[in-house]
Amino acid sequence: MKKSFKQWATLIAICMAGGTIFKLAYLRDVFYVAMQEAFGFTNTQFGLMMTAFAVTQFIAYLPGGWITDLVPVKYLIPVSLISTGLCGFWLAAYPPFTSVLIIQAVMGITITLLFWEAMIKGTRMIGTAEEQGRMFGLLEGGRGLFATIISFAALWMFTNFGEGRMGLRATMIFYAIALCGLGVVCFFLIEKNDVEGKVNAKEALDGLVHVAKLPRVWVAGGIVFFGYSFYNGLSYFSSYLTEICGMSVSMGVAVNIVRQYLIAFIAAPIGGMIADKMGSSINYLKIALTLGTILTGIYLVIPTTMGIVVVVGLMLVLAAVMMTIRGTYYATTDEIQIPIVMSGAAAGILSIVGNTPDLFIFTLYGYFMDAYPGIQGYRYIFIAMMVFAVLGVGCCFLLAHMKKKIK
């Protein structure tokens, strides 16, 4: 990949932004107990916080695609970062619950309407048609790397300011300052592409309508939907290791960090390169989803008394396969002949279809664990993951057939 300095700077800026912008919205994932003590919210209120974020996200995906085809990525990403950072300053003031709901809802808009599709379109514009797999793989890996760096920096802030109310406030202010600073940096680093800014509002809307009428775009969205549903089951493997396999909690956390960040950094770019070598992200996804199905199925037959090294090793291999899937399932739009000028609209449809599992998937997996305590609940999760993966393979075959008809 012979790229100019500006192109590499653009990719690095997008990775930095993508690895940081979600941290405030998902602060509870890492600092749940500290937030309970500082804000005094109940578990139900924390659930409502994430619901407020998810609802505005869901609403914003489609118009976000329209805006991304209307306004250059160079302007959208900085505005999204700075506006999200300002929300962080408000959150650090420890406002009442109603205000926190508003903040979460606003971040759903600043992150999704202004950033998400811009990130996808910006990445696509950097690479040629033969490089889409590795560009999106590098995006996923780069996001994982910068998410790791910024997370450990935030943890240092939290620890050094007392790990309580002050520590949490320092963490939120740190994220807010980092986002605003990144917004300025991204404005200067991100290159404006020649194809951007050439359509007016009506033309961008016409493009969105045109893309929405293409069945192949919805099938591509189906691949993201089933791949994302499959991937979300991986978050339950850490509790499987501790609850079923007897691993210590601290060791489980360590394995989770390796699975979530290090594996993403390594595996996603490799998966993208393999997809490009094969000449088709669609064909690669067929293989990866099939392999993921087989690896998940092993957990249905493997004895829980099997050595922990084997169980963890299998989980890390499965995580690596899943990260390659995440690194390539947005790379199909070029392959199915969606013009770059309409790639924001396509990303909007892929996102609204592909992220729909956020509305139900954790409830489904949680139900299995509550209704069937112990290993049986996990087995139902594994079976559901396999079903989603197989359906994803079916979408890949259908999209490959549609691709042939397009040619």
Automatic annotation (TrEMBL):
Key words of the record: Cell membrane, Membrane, Transmembrane, Transmembrane helix, Transport
GO molecular function terms noted in the UniProt entry: transmembrane transporter activity
InterPro entries in the cross-refs: MFS, MFS_dom, MFS_Efflux_Transporters, MFS_trans_sf
Transmembrane segments: 7-26, 46-63, 75-93, 99-116, 137-158, 170-190, 211-231, 251-272, 284-302, 308-329, 341-368, 380-400
A single Gene Ontology CC term: plasma membrane
PANTHER family: CHLORAMPHENICOL EFFLUX PUMP RV0191, PURINE EFFLUX PUMP PBUE
UniProt name for this protein: Nitrate/nitrite transporter NarK
Organism name: Enterocloster lavalensis
